[in-house]
Each structure stands twice: as structure tokens, then as C-alpha cells.
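for the recovery benchmark. C-alpha cells below, seq after
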């Protein structure tokens, strides 16, 4: 199985480190975030990895080469010209994926011990197009699910904005969960993104919402697992306390 680690972000919340380095190489207990995610995937037998790059792309490429991919086969999807967000980054990387085969994605700045074997078993049992980890942690933005764990909508808690493409379910029956950024995709996601007209820069959340009414987009609740969003310098200490 292949996986893509989204590593192209500017890391604006992670200054001053990202004034001179990509966030993907920020160390947590001496190991760069990228290495930690590569080793996380290795625990589940995933050694074929794609990494997208933009901000200080050369530093990431040099680190991959110098460390022989930390034991994995690593291909680079080059976004030097323009950063494409998660959805655009995935679509650009399509030529690097094995045609027709299921794959994974994760974000370089998320550290978790979500059990990917359990996520894959859930995905297969649900016969889903996309399945991703979610937890009940507090978040400024939530995905909304029905009682069976199927995605129905999205909410921005700060702005009070909601998008609910799946109709017919009362709002008080939807459960708000936080996105963990570890995702299983069926390869057909590429065809569907193109059919929906997605091009250039766009978010995977927009893809999920555009497909939710007609396809099974499922949330796997792994509340209780370790998870840290290493989005700001002060979150490094939290990550270091949880991940040796």
C-alpha cells in the first residue's frame, strides 16, 4: 500500500522555525516530523511513500536523500510553483500512485498512534469511498456525522458557518467530531474529483463535502488515542511529552 504525507505547507503558525526551514523537518525529541510520520506508516507495513514539497522544498529533498528515506521508498511531488493545499496536492500527485489501488494519506504536522489496521478494517466493513480518523477533541471546525458515522456536513464553530450537503437529518441528530488527517482512499477518488471540476488549489474537506450526498465518506472514531497537532512552536513540548 502507498501513502502520501502532506508536507508542502508554509507553516505560518510555526514561525520563527519556518522562516528558514520547512515545518516537515521540525524536530520532536530529535526526530523530524517527516521521519516520525514515515516511521509511523512503517509500523503498518507501508514503505512506499509520496511527499509533496513547496516551502524550502530543497531542504526536504536533501533530508530524504541523506537519510535514504528513513528506510522507505520516497517519491517527491513537486509543488514549488504554487502550494495546492491537501486536495490539489493529492490530485497533482496522482501519476505517482499505483493505478486502481487503495492508498493512505496523513499530514506531516499531526502525530498520532491511531491504529491504521483498525482504520482499514473499518473502511472495508463500511464499503466506503473514503474513511478517516476522527476524535471528540475540541476544535474550531468540526465534521458532522449521522449515527452510523457517515459524513453529513461541516461546521466552523468560530464563524457559525455550516455546510450540510446530506439532507433529511435533523441538525440535533448530527455528531460533531474533529478530523485527525489520517485517511484511507479508494483510487476512484481521482476520477470523482475531476468529475466535480476540482482543479488547482483546494482542500480535501471540500472534496468530502461535494461527494458526501452520493458516496460513503466515513468517520472512524479513535477518541482516546494519542494525537497532537504540531501546528505551533509551543505544541512541540506537548508532542515531546507524548512521543518519545
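predicted aa per position
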Amino acid at each position: 500500500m502507498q501513502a502520501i504525507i502532506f508536507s508542502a505547507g508554509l507553516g505560518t503558525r510555526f514561525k520563527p522555525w519556518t522562516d528558514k526551514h520547512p515545518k516537515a523537518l521540525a524536530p520532536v525529541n530529535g526526530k523530524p516530523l517527516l521521519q516520525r510520520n514515515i516511521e509511523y506508516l512503517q509500523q503498518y507495513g507501508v514503505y512506499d511513500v509520496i511527499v509533496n514539497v513547496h516551502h524550502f522544498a530543497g531542504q526536504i529533498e536533501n533530508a530524504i536523500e541523506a537519510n535514504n528515506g528513513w528506510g522507505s521508498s520516497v517519491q517527491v511531488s513537486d509543488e514549488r510553483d504554487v502550494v495546492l493545499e491537501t486536495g490539489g496536492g493529492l490530485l497533482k500527485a496522482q501519476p505517482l500512485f499505483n493505478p486502481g489501488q487503495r492508498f493512505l494519506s496523513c499530514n506531516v504536522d499531526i502525530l498520532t498512534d491511531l491504529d491504521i489496521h483498525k482504520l482499514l478494517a473499518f473502511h472495508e466493513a463500511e464499503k466506503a469511498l473514503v474513511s478517516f480518523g476522527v476524535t471528540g477533541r475540541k476544535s474550531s471546525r468540526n465534521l458532522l456525522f449521522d449515527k452510523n458515522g457517515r459524513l453529513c456536513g461541516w461546521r466552523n464553530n468560530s464563524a457559525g458557518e455550516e455546510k450540510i450537503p446530506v439532507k433529511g437529518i435533523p441538525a440535533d441528530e448530527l455528531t460533531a467530531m474533529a478530523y485527525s488527517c489520517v485517511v484511507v482512499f479508494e483510487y476512484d477518488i481521482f476520477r470523482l474529483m475531476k468529475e466535480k471540476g476540482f482543479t488547482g488549489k483546494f482542500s480535501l474537506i471540500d472534496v468530502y463535502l461535494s461527494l458526501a450526498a452520493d458516496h460513503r465518506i466515513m468517520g472512524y472514531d479513535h477518541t482516546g488515542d494519542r494525537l497532537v497537532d504540531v501546528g505551533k512552536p509551543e505544541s512541540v513540548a506537548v508532542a515531546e511529552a507524548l512521543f518519545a
